[in-house]
Design a protein that fits this description.
With 184 residues, this protein is mostly helical. It has a single domain, classed as TspO/MBR protein (Ferritin), CATH 1.20.1260.100. 73% of the residues lie in helices and 0% in strands. Helix 1 runs antiparallel to helix 3 and helix 1 runs parallel beside helix 4. The radius of gyration is 19 Å and the shape is elongated. It starts with 6 loop residues before the first helix and ends in an 18-residue tail after the last helix.
Length: 184
């Protein structure tokens, strides 16, 4: 075959990427949250003082589900953009961004470290801005999908900073239950 791919072939190529990236991004995000005990129901998190603008718990599940889907679609668009300038660098930054996103829940909810979690969100915000700029030159729709993610990160940073400020001894609140092991 020496012809250029048709529009339907290009669309199918993108859909194949999306059928892998969207479920994978969503699954890894869900696992990160579940394994670190994120959200309401976590004894430590429930014991924290929270700001008045804290949304109800269900909002986080809905928001992150939507954001992970948007991230998966944006990643599919990026992977589909063969031959685009700076595509390789952008893919690497996208994957670093995803890794940082998946690390936030364990850092905050499992390790009880709101200060370092705030630092990680700052890094995530910086990476998201760089990704939006790079994606703008590769696939503008993918860049626009990340704007919602960036907005949520800014809100999450405000929440994390408020919780950290309101709970200076956060690491000592609601310690894990004592071990039932018998010490000889």
């Amino acid at each position: 075959m020496t012809g250029i791919a048709s529009r339907s072939q290009l669309r199918m190529s993108f859909l194949r990427w999306a059928l892998v990236t969207v479920p994978l991004v969503l699954l890894l995000g869900t696992l990160s949250g579940r394994l670190s005990g994120s959200g309401f129901g976590n004894r430590w998190f429930d014991a924290l003082a929270k700001p008045e603008f804290m949304p109800p718990g269900w909002v986080f599940g809905v928001a992150w589900t939507i954001l992970y889907i948007l991230l998966g679609v944006a990643l599919a668009m990026l992977l589909h953009a063969r031959g685009a300038r700076h595509r390789g660098l952008t893919i690497v930054l996208f994957l670093v961004q995803l890794a940082a996103t998946y690390l936030w829940s364990p850092l905050f909810f499992a390790l009880h470290l709101p200060g370092p979690a705030l630092g990680l969100i700052a890094l995530m915000i910086a990476l998201a801005v760089v990704l939006i700029v790079l994606l703008w030159w590769i696939r503008r729709v993918a860049a626009l999908l990340l704007v919602a993610y960036l907005a949520w990160l800014c809100f999450a940073a405000l929440l994390t900073a408020s919780i950290w400020q309101m709970n200076p001894n956060a690491a000592e609140l609601a310690p894990e239950p004592a071990s039932t092991d018998i010490v000889l």
